[in-house]
Amino acid sequence: QVQLVESGGGLVQAGGSLRLSCVASGSIFSINVMGWYRQAPGKQRELVALMSSRGITNYADSVKGRFTISRDNAKKTVYLQMNNLKPEDTAVYYCNANIRESIGSGGSHDYWGQGTQVTVSS
User: Fold this and answer.
1) Side-chain-side CA neighbours of residue 59 (13 Å)
2) Which of 22, 32, 60, 106 could make a disulfide contact with 95, Cβ separation 3.0–4.6 Å?
């Protein structure tokens, strides 16, 4: 089995910074794309940032220039550095990874973290 565990959420004032971490563990053969999504109350889940195993990134327009995604493949960890936070960034942030398991037949699957609350006050 595979598990994603997040940490780093919290409450900050507008303009502040926060750093999220997500560690993958379990029967992992390889990890393809890793990324972050968020879901605000009453809103659908949206993409925040993605990074391929080779370091290619993709960001939502709303966070470009403020958020930075990075990953440590050796540690099977993805990070999200969030700077200049705005109240509109308030949401539950979810880690996501497409993983090929080391046990079982072929095929990759998407896994999700438990979610961590980020609250930005004005």
Assistant:
1) 14
2) 22
